[in-house]
Design a protein that fits this description.
about 70% helix; about 140 residues; 2 domains
Length: about 140
């Protein structure tokens, strides 16, 4: 009986996107996997509408959870994107938690805040009177 081989014909630009996703996964997880062996999984990931940014968010969330000892995630490809429903749940959780975090100040906001602080201190130094002077004025 001849062996069956399944071939997924994918347009080249899509093929490059899948290889890019795979390369990103390998970089983020510090693993070296053969793309050809996992092409079907990446095709399903792409077909489900997930993006490179989604992959970054989920792997970042998994790493942060591991560091905090909240949950111990493994970084095998099957654990990360093998179950797309689970991937979607982790992505939704990461997005919900990150949505409620205070945003870091932009460089412009940091400069304005520092200026206001410095200018405010200078204004107080120049216009405020020592407490002793205030008390003298009240006693008169």
């Amino acid at each position: 009986m001849p062996e069956s081989h399944f071939v997924i014909l994918v347009p080249m630009n899509n093929q490059e996107r899948l290889q890019s996703l795979h390369a990103l996964f390998c970089q983020l997880t510090e693993r070296q996997l053969h793309f050809a062996l996992h092409e079907r999984v990446w095709h399903e990931f792409d077909r489900a509408g997930f993006t490179e940014n989604d992959l970054r968010i989920v792997i970042g969330w998994m790493k942060a959870s591991n560091r905090k000892h909240e949950w111990q995630y493994g970084f095998k490809l099957g654990n990360v994107i093998g179950d797309l429903a689970r991937f979607d749940e982790i992505l939704a959780e990461a997005l919900a938690v990150n949505r409620n975090k205070p945003k870091a100040a932009t460089p412009r906001e940091q400069v304005v805040k520092e200026f206001q602080k410095t200018a405010g201190e200078a204004f107080v130094r120049e216009t405020a009177r020592p407490l002793a002077d205030v008390l003298k004025g009240m006693a008169q």
